[in-house]
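Input record (one chain):
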Amino acid sequence: MNVAPIDATDLADWAVRLYDEYLRRPDLIRPATWARLERRPAGHLLDDPERIEDHKLSAIAESQAAGQVRRGDAFDVMAMVIAMSGAWSPVSMFTQRPAQEPPELHQQRRSLLRESVRRAMTADQWNLCPLQPNACQPCAFATARSRLTSRFARFSAAVSGLLRDTCATAHPGRPCRRGTVSAR
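The corresponding structure, as predicted from the sequence alone:
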């Protein structure tokens, strides 16, 4: 059963639609949880997972290849989105929030879920090439930018250490104020 068809170009929206289905139809998720606990404690929950999951995994893989979804195993990406969407479901390990709660609480959760999935699953824009944004691997430009950022971080740490040392020499026995030398 595919109660919330996947849109791999917008996994955040898919997560929110799953959340809404869990609220609307708690009967859909309870039997799956029972089956996991009693019948299939390990491995795939379904007898024929390919039939249910192949189109979802293909859609995620296509979005990854297009640079829209972060790198990683497509199954793991799907599992993470489904887990995040079920955080407040009737079978959550943390808390169960029924549909009868005030609508504004559900809207807050939808917003948090949407933003969290978007941030977690959107392709890492920092490592994408500005000339070829759909490239699967970081290009030379992105690699050089990453190295430069790393070198700047090391330089910044070295300067902070130097300032602390200078402050300690100029003001023995007094703590340095945020790594800067106080003006006299």
